[in-house]
């Protein structure tokens, strides 16, 4: 069973999607995201398999939650620097987790 200390090891922050690009080299359909995670962390990149539920236009300025303290991960020719969090819909496609209100980028989940 996980403990509160285990949870506290994760650094989950709110970020604002500032750019979205197609990722045709990905094995599964995905977008390349640039996410502003506030002044402490800055702008990071993430690959997200979310094309079934979102358009590039819908993602612009969207607030999302990201794990920022995992090591970067090579995904094809792209390096994903943060893990953008989501949950599966009824078809198993990713739905992003986002705050219910407008909050500034960089805020830490606790």
From TrEMBL:
The keyword Transcription does not apply. Pfam families: tRNA_bind (PF01588). GO terms for molecular function: tRNA binding. The keyword RNA-binding applies. Keywords: RNA-binding, tRNA-binding. Residues 6-110 form the TRNA-binding domain. This is tRNA-binding protein.
